[in-house]
Design brief:
The protein is about 80% helix and about 0% strand. By secondary structure, the chain is mainly alpha-helical.
C-alpha cells in the first residue's frame, strides 16, 4: 500500500514537471497553430534554426548564464558554509539581527534593492561587468544557501571532527575528509537552489548588466512579450533544460547517498 502511494506521489511530481513543457515542445515546431485545432496545422524548424543562428544570441546568453550561475554558486558556497555553521552551532551577541538581515533579500522586492545597489555599483565601476552581475546575483542566493545549510549544521555533530584533530589532521584535512562528506547531500541541494536562482535572474541582470552582459532571460523575455510564440517556446526549452538536468543529477546523487547510508546502517 505504501509503495503504491509512493509511486503515485512520484508520478504526480513527474506530471507536474513535464505537463507544462509539452505545449512548449509542440509550439517550438509549430508554424501555424490556430484555435480550436488540437495540434498545429503547419510545422516548421524555423524556431530552432533561429536559435542556432548567431543573430539570436542564444548561444552567447547560454554561455554567460552558465558561467555566472557557476561562479555565483561557488561564491555562495564559500560565504554560506562558514556563515551557516556559525549560526547553527554557536551562540553570539547579535545572532538574531544577523538572521534577520539574511532574510532581507527575500522579503524586499528585488527591483527595489537592485536600484539602490545600482547606484553603489556605478561608483565602484561594477555596472556592465561580469563581476558586477555575479555579485548582485549573490544577494538573493546567499539567504537560500544559508537557510539550507543552517538546517544541515543544526543536525550535525562535531565529534568526528574533534577526533580527527586529536589524531593530527589539519583543518583542511578535517574539512575534506570529515565535514564535507557529512554535509554533502545538504550542500548539493543548497547549490542547486543557488544555481537555479542565479540562472533565472532577469531584473538584476538587466539593471546591473546594462544590456552588455547578455544572459538567457535577457534573450527570452522580449519574445514572451512579442508575437513569435514559436521562438519563445524554443528559447524557453533551452532555458529550462539545464534546470531539469541539474534536478535529475541531484536526485540521482541524493539517491546514491541514501543507498550508501542505508548500507552502513544495515552493517
Amino acid at each position: 500500500m505504501w509503495k503504491f502511494f509512493r509511486w503515485l506521489a512520484v508520478a504526480s511530481i513527474v506530471v507536474a514537471v513535464v505537463a507544462p513543457i509539452i505545449p512548449q515542445i509542440i509550439w517550438s515546431f509549430a508554424h501555424r497553430w490556430l484555435f480550436p485545432a488540437l495540434l498545429p496545422t503547419e510545422w516548421s524548424l524555423q524556431p530552432w534554426q533561429y536559435i542556432l543562428s548567431p543573430s539570436s544570441r542564444v548561444g552567447e546568453g547560454f554561455v554567460n548564464s552558465l558561467a555566472i550561475a557557476l561562479v555565483v554558486s561557488l561564491l555562495a558556497i564559500v560565504v554560506g558554509i562558514p556563515t551557516s555553521r556559525a549560526l547553527a552551532l554557536h551562540q553570539f551577541r547579535g545572532k538574531e539581527a544577523v538572521e534577520w538581515l539574511l532574510m532581507v533579500p527575500i522579503i524586499v522586492p528585488g527591483i527595489v534593492s537592485t536600484m539602490g545597489i545600482h547606484q553603489v555599483f556605478i561608483r565602484l565601476q561594477l555596472t556592465d561587468t561580469f563581476l558586477g552581475v555575479c555579485l548582485v546575483h549573490l544577494i538573493p542566493c546567499i539567504p537560500y544557501m544559508v537557510l539550507v545549510m543552517s538546517s544541515v549544521f543544526a543536525n550535525y555533530g562535531t565529534d568526528l571532527e574533534d577526533t580527527a584533530r586529536t589524531l593530527g589532521a589539519s583543518p583542511f584535512q578535517v574539512f575534506r575528509h570529515v565535514t564535507l562528506p557529512g554535509i554533502f547531500p545538504g550542500l548539493l541541494v543548497a547549490t542547486l537552489f543557488t544555481f537555479l536562482i542565479s540562472w533565472s535572474q532577469y531584473v538584476t541582470t538587466l539593471l546591473i548588466g546594462g544590456g552588455t552582459i547578455i544572459t538567457l532571460p535577457i534573450v527570452l523575455f522580449p519574445f514572451i512579450a512579442g508575437t513569435s510564440s514559436s521562438n519563445a517556446a524554443a528559447i524557453s526549452l533551452v532555458f529550462v533544460a539545464p534546470a531539469i538536468l541539474m534536478l535529475i543529477l541531484t536526485s540521482r546523487q541524493l539517491g546514491r547517498e541514501s543507498a550508501v547510508m542505508g548500507g552502513f546502517g544495515r552493517l
